[in-house]
Amino acid sequence: MHVRFWVAVGLGAALAAAPATSADDDLAKALATLKAVGKEGKGNEDAGPAWKAVVGKGGAALMPTLGAVDDAHPTAANWLRTAAGAVAEAERTAGRALPAKTLEAFATDTRHAPSARRLAYELLLTQDPAAKARLLPGFINDKSPDLRRDAVAARMAELDDISKPVTRADYEKLLPFARDKDQVEFLAKAIDKLGGRASTTEHFGFVTAAHLVGPFDAPESKGYTTAYPPDAATAPDGAFKGKDGAEVKWAPAATADRYGTFDLNKLLGKHKNAVAYALAVVVAPAETPCEVRVTSPTSVKTYLNGKEIFGRDEYHHGDPFDAHTGRGTLKKGENVVVVKVCQNDQPQPWAQRWQFQVRVCDDTGGALPLEQKAVVDGQPKTVKLGYNPTPAADPKEEKK
User: Fold this and answer.
1) Does the bond joining 229 to the residue before it have cis omega, within 30 degrees of 0?
2) How many domains does the chain have?
3) pLDDT: is 294 or 387 the higher one?
4) Which of 96, 228, 338, 357 could form a cystine bridge with 260, CB 3.0-4.6 A?
């Protein structure tokens, strides 16, 4: 009797445990299927059923789904975030509470993906609205761009309260934490109005001094895939055969634009089916991880110390701020950043811009303690990254 009793109990316990184990395995498989989604529709056929399977697991799937975003491809991350959102919505509709403490721990853990942390924070607020006032101040220097933006916006709203006295120092203290262009613009103007000076060029770490060479001939808009000698440039040296057989050499150039725009149509002349290169020397005080962010309406490649770190062959697709990001590590001392900027032959008026911006920053988009080599008054100098090296530039122009 005793033996049969314990056998029966053991069997019953095993049977009771089996569904949970099976459910965990099913969730893991569904999440793995969603994480397998990639570029150009890879894995999309299997993603739909897997998404439904994840959502069908209910509240138990919420935190594993958020966690799965950590190392997921951006396309897969979108599937996972929408699945987590659908799970949370279903739980709320059913009248079940979300795990507030677990969501808060996830949202404040910087080891998780920024986009997943933001979603966890938003879900937390639906359960615990008071968490906003409690957590936002701690996000002011966060790696998540969205959480940081919310924190800066909240502080800006406090400063905008006309019932409280505000000093220039209040805005100057907040500016270093801002990363988004609109917030930086607002704070810089507020500082200017109160008698200070805030340089957006320095704030973002734009390269304002470089050497240019070009144009090179790029028939049939094949400049992006064609290798030219400056692809491997480590110094602004040498003369090359350029467009229409003309000799082209590196020449120093500078921009007084407060967002670091180099207009190649003005600097090199208006050309179509052409390629130009910009070479900048950035000086780091120590080995430093960095991002090289380039904005251009045309095809570009970015090189850091001779290594390609970014490339995109797409023309006249718009040029949103920080459109292209390459990641690398600056070595102590001088580092060479080369940007290859292409132009095709489209005749439409909106396809005539040939320009670029480049900045070097940390992984949040914040300034690094860097310098750049520049030619000032005909003499080589080392100046702060973002410094306007053009003597004739009117400082007031930078404030407009």
Assistant:
1) no
2) 3
3) 294
4) 357
Question: Does a structural domain hold residue 253?
Answer: yes
Same domain, 259 and 357: yes
Quick one: tokens of 116?
């997943």
State pTM to two decimals.
Answer: 0.85
Please check whether residue 138 lies inside any domain of the structure: no
Radius of gyration, CA atoms only, the chain: 27
Residue that is last in its domain, among 88, 104, 129: 129
CB–CB of 378/171 below 8 Å?
no
Q: Are residues 49 and 70 in the same domain?
A: yes
DSSP 54-116: HHHTGGGGHHHHHHHTTT--HHHHHHHHHHHHHHHHHHHHTTPPP-HHHHHHHHT-TTS-HHH
- Amino acid type, 281: V
Q: Are 391 and 295 in contact (CB under 8 A)?
A: no
Which helix (H) or strand (E) segment is 172 a member of?
Answer: helix 168-174
User: Is residue 46 assigned to a domain?
Assistant: yes
Tokens of 137: 């101040």
Same domain, yes or no: 238 and 333:
yes
In terms of residue numbers, what domain contains 149? Answer: 145-198
For residue 262, the cross-strand partners are: 356
112 contacts 65 by C-beta, under 8 angstroms: no
Q: How confident is the model at residue 290 (pLDDT cuts 50, 70, 90)?
A: very high
Distance CA 376, CA 391 (A): 7
- Please give the backbone phi and psi of residue 375, each rounded to the nearest 5 degrees, phi first: -110, 110
Whether residues 186 and 208 share a domain: the answer is no
Please give the pLDDT value at position 24.
83
Give the count of beta carbons closer than 10 Å to the beta carbon of residue 345.
Answer: 14
On whether both 208 and 330 belong to a single domain, the answer is: yes
pLDDT tier at 390, thresholds 50, 70, 90 = low
Task: Decide which of 154, 169, 198 is a domain's last residue.
Answer: 198
With tokens 């309260």, the residue in question is 161
